[in-house]
Structures are given as C-alpha cells and as structure tokens.
Amino acid sequence: MRARTAQDRQLLELIDPIAESLGLEVVRVRLMTGSKRQRLQVMAERPSDHDISVEQCAKLSRAVSEVFDAADPIAGEYMLEVSSPGIDRPLTRPIDFDLFEGEEARLETDRMIEGRKRFKGVLAGYEDGNVLIDLDGEEETALIPFDWLSDAKLVLTDALMKRGAAIRAARGEPEDDGLPEGEAEDTTTDTTTPSEDNA
C-alpha cells in the first residue's frame, strides 16, 4: 500500500534507501499523471515520533532529485512534492494500525467482503496479517486482511484535529483552523521542486 502501481513500486525502491540514509521512513509514494505535469508525491516521517520537519523535507527532496536526475526513472516533466503524511494520514503499513488504534478510519478493499468494499469504524489494532476494526453498527470486531486493502486513511475528527494541533504546538508552529473539511493535509512540511527529463 505504500506504492500502488508497478511504477510507484520501482520509484519506492529508489527512494527508500535515500530516506533511510537521512533517518526517515517513506510512508507513501504516488506518481500522479492526471494533469498536464506529472506530480510525484512522497510522504515521509521520522520513525521515532512519526513527524518530520521542514528542513528534513527539504533535505529529502534535494537527495531524491539528485538520484532521479542521474537515474532518470520518470519520462517527461514532473513535480516532486515531499511532505508529511498529514493529520488524516494514509495508513499504509501494518504498524500504522497499531499506532492509531482507537482512531476512526476508512478502509477500502480490492475485493468484496460480505457484499462490500468500503468500511468505516474505529481501529482496534493489527494481528496476524489482519487489520482489526470495530465497524459502525456492528458488535463484533471485524478482521480485514491487510493484503486485501487498496486504500486506508484516518477520518478527520475533533480528536484527530486536537492531536494535530498538539504536534504543531510541539514544533512551535501556529494553529491552523483553515483546513478543508475531510481533506486536511499537514502542508507545513511541503517542499516542491520541479524536475525535468534530461533525455
């Protein structure tokens, strides 16, 4: 889930060791190709506290640009965007479901489970390859195979907003009340660098 397509997976293989050399972990890589200019989105964080500074985003962006300029893994012009996972972050690794146990999440699977592919509820952890979630309106905890997930992210709630505000306060950043409903992203750590295909 950290990479969705075959090309995303190839890019992730290049980016992972770069991030690790800087003491970071890649949460997700997505190459967006819908607009005129392609956009490579890299979400990363420190494994120690699951946060990232503006300076670390900038360092990772420069390091990825250097490697990509040499390796040339993307045809055509693209924009590189390095950021934090944001408040209502994607859940892409098994550890995420333990870290955010007790938070609301939306899950989507790549196949039908009891007649549906979309699920919403409170995360109850991760166990034996399964995501545990207490679904809305159901008494028993559901087990959804991690390998069947096509998408998973936290739901933006008041509790999650408070958690995000606490993180920003710890960084010494001002509170931001202007986040779009349901689409909040911690853009304070975004670094955007244009890159061009040298071929």
Descriptive labels:
single chain, 199 residues, alpha+beta, GMP Synthetase, Chain A, domain 3, SH3 type barrels, five-stranded antiparallel sheet, four-stranded mixed sheet, 4 helices, 9 strands, 27% helix, 33% strand, disordered C terminus
Mean pLDDT across residues:
86
Q: What is the CATH topology descriptor of the largest domain?
A: GMP Synthetase, Chain A, domain 3
Work out the number of β strands: 9
Q: Regarding quaternary structure, how should these chains be classified?
A: single chain
Query: Strand portion, in percent?
Result: 25-35%
Strand order of the largest sheet: 7-6-5-4-8
Task: Report the C-alpha radius of gyration, rounded.
Answer: 18 Å
The CATH homology group name of the largest domain: RimP-like superfamily, N-terminal
Q: What is the structural class?
A: alpha+beta
- The biggest beta sheet, please? 5 strands, antiparallel
Low-pLDDT segments: 176-199
Q: What is the CATH level 1 assignment of the largest domain?
A: Alpha Beta
How many helical elements?
A: 4
CATH architecture of the largest domain: 2-Layer Sandwich
